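Hey everyone, long-time lurker, first post.

I ran two proteins through the pipeline my lab uses and got sequence/structure pairs for each. Pasting them in order. The first:
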Amino acid sequence: MRSAIEGGMADAWAEFNTFKKDKVDTGEVGSAQFFGTAADLKGNYLYRMAGAVLGIYGNTAAEAIYPGFFNDAAGEPLTGANKYTFRFAPGQLPPVNAFWSLTMYEMPASLLVDNPVDRYLINSAMLDDLVKDPDGGYTLYIQNESPGAAREPNWLPAPKGPFALVLRLYWPKPDALDGQWQPPEPVKT
């Protein structure tokens, strides 16, 4: 019986790893599908597992959504060996009734990134301190080393190795929930 249970667990992890690589990392399936009531999940145990593994205690989509980024816009894994930008075009900040944040996690540990400026996220409360682009948008610089003094207010320090980003939208507006608004993607520079 023990062997059967351990085999079932191994099968579940293998299915989860394939699902994460093919569906979650590509953005096809996201946090809005991982959390909620039993009726919301309709017996989808793979999605329930994803919610527990990737974001235990997550909220329902009406309360918050969490677009995650494991790859850049070209589909390559995020790594501190590269430099990236994450740009909110004018008028395209996350549509929320409460607040939003973009948080950096060092992988595979999924821990916040120790860095010289003690900055682990950039959020809506920081907008007054960020440097706006000439067109009114915001470009965030995601890299291991400082992008220079003029850009440092918009710098989210990356580790030297692999990392992931999570954009949290608390009390999202309808256009975030129905897909009319799409988050930007990290772009390798």
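...and the second, right after it:
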Amino acid sequence: MEKLWNRNYVKVMTANFLLFFAFYLLAPLLPLYLSEYFSATKDVIGLVLSGYTITALLFRPFSGFLVDSFDRKRMLLFFYFLFFIFFTGYLAAGSLLLFAIIRTLHGAPFGGLTVANSTVAIDVLPSSRRNEGIGYYGLSNNLAMAMAPSVGIAVYQYTSDFQLLFWIALAVAGLGMAVDSTVQLPKRPVVRRRDKISLDRFFLLKGWLIAVNMVFFGFCFGVLHNFLAIYSKEVMGITGGTGVFFLLLSIGLIVSRLLGSKSLRKGRLARNAGEGIVLSTLGYTLFVLCPNSFGYYVSPLLIGLGNGHLWPAFLNMTINIASNNERGTANSTLLVSWDVGIGLGILAGGLLSEYISYTFAFFTVAFCHVVGAALFFLATRQFFEVRRRSVTD
């Protein structure tokens, strides 16, 4: 059996961990920052934070095209540098408008970098271990999610200094860029397509239903991730539990990735996805139906276990119906659908909590996840199986 944990794969995973550490260090605390430093209302917070995701969403289809059409390592380092340098903008922003502009523009290199890095990870994986390797690759995201919010919240609790948090994020991103610069990629011919540019150059049309299904799950996570801290404080009266919540969520993700690797290696993608969707649906439902400590600390484990199965399965499903020269496009397609959901979730979460209540916003989350689950079992699963059988490697 070919070696999975080769040197370049480990480097790409490390750089991905540092990328998401820089992201998750700030994400849970930015609503508090906007509220405390700029006196932003809930709906304005939703609009400002959704800009990052919307920009990533708009840029990702083009980044998939760029990664497939030009030298991947150069594109990778270009995106990483832009992602790194934008953190200096947070340090300089002295008004809500300037912060909103910088945060929104920062989404573009983030979108390009996540596509480029995951595509490079696929390139350095042996073909016989690709499904399994993609599942393990997500562990770097999950570890960052486990550690970064807790670190960020701890730093803020002890220092009340958001500027220090921005400096830490800048340093971590710089380290990730340095690690990626040492990755050696296998030589591959750069595809110079002379045919007319069409939509399928930027979006994997043959995977459209998988992408639509992922929007529902992204919506749920967008509301949860961005409004949990305020919801916990204002509705549930839990002030110090956000870090523990994300830690438990990440533990579930990590355990799920490890347990699901064997199933992915055997190609049981739809089964993995289905199991993950059921667990996540139970987790979101428990969270809204049990607004107490039991629901608060058990639900993230279920959501983590579910998403740890769901995400790599959906990514592998998308890649399995794409040709080899469409890997970047396949990656960007799934990430775009996730971004659409996240952006809609942030926007809707801000509006619903401002004009109705946080409780109603999170009940909407549970309902959307149930709809996403129904869509998968009634349509998406068969959609994938038919197209996988028709694809030749």
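Reply from user beta_strand_b:
Welcome! Quick read of the second one: The mean pLDDT is 85. The CA atoms of residues 81 and 177 lie 7 Å apart.
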